[in-house]
Amino acid sequence: xxxxxxxxxxxxxxxxxxxxxxxxxxxxxxxxxxxxxxxxxxxxxxxxxxxxxxxxxxxxxxxxxxxxxxxxxxxxxxxxxxxxxxxxxxxxxxxxxxxxxxxxxxxxxxxxxxxxxxxxxxxxxxxxxxxxxxxxxxxxxxxxxxxxxxxxxxxxxxxxxxxxxxxxxxxxxxxxxxxxxxxxxxxxxxxxxxxxxxxxxxxxxxxxxxxxxxxxxxxxxxxxxxxxxxxxxxxxxxxxxxxxxxxxxx
Length: 250
Description:
Main location: membrane
Subcellular location: Cell membrane
Transmembrane segments: 27-46, 152-175, 181-201, 208-224
Organism: Pseudoroseomonas ludipueritiae
Helix content: over 70%
Order of helices and strands: HHHHHHHHHHH
Largest sheet: none
Family: Belongs to the AzlC family.
Number of domains: 2
């Protein structure tokens, strides 16, 4: 079946859908993924608290950046005094994937005015990006124009945002009591649900060849090069592979 499993992403509603109906659809679709953010948020908040972050600084970390991977990297590098330039560089490297994600999302939101497009991009995380693109594609195939549903996307994204900030704050509060939550394997919930979501973008093994190249290169760089360079290496190698394969098929 094309697209995400129906228990993860409900089918698009018909052309008569209203804004409240699209918001409800987005909230329902976001529920299982938002639940998966709870343990990851608790882990991040607990780690931040153990590094000396206050209960005000933890939600600021989660809310202003809103990119889980770079937040974990920043907390992991935190020291006294903090290596600010190193943390900034690693944050940029880890978040550089958002450049490619934004470029992929741009065609779907090009009809939006800037005052609406900017919140869409700010709230974009890995999960909302996958769900937004998958839903837009499904709606376009069903004859909707435009395929991108702004109320649906904002409902999904805001549910993720609120859940993430709230759970990191809760983790920061409970962190000194709970200790290292990674010993329970809770930090694996987030990557696991994202792998399930990627199913919605699957178009066959042939189209996935650049993904494979990106995966292999990123894994090799991760093993042999310190720092966050594996993110950039994986992204650039995937782009290069996609370009070379497209040229070869012309």
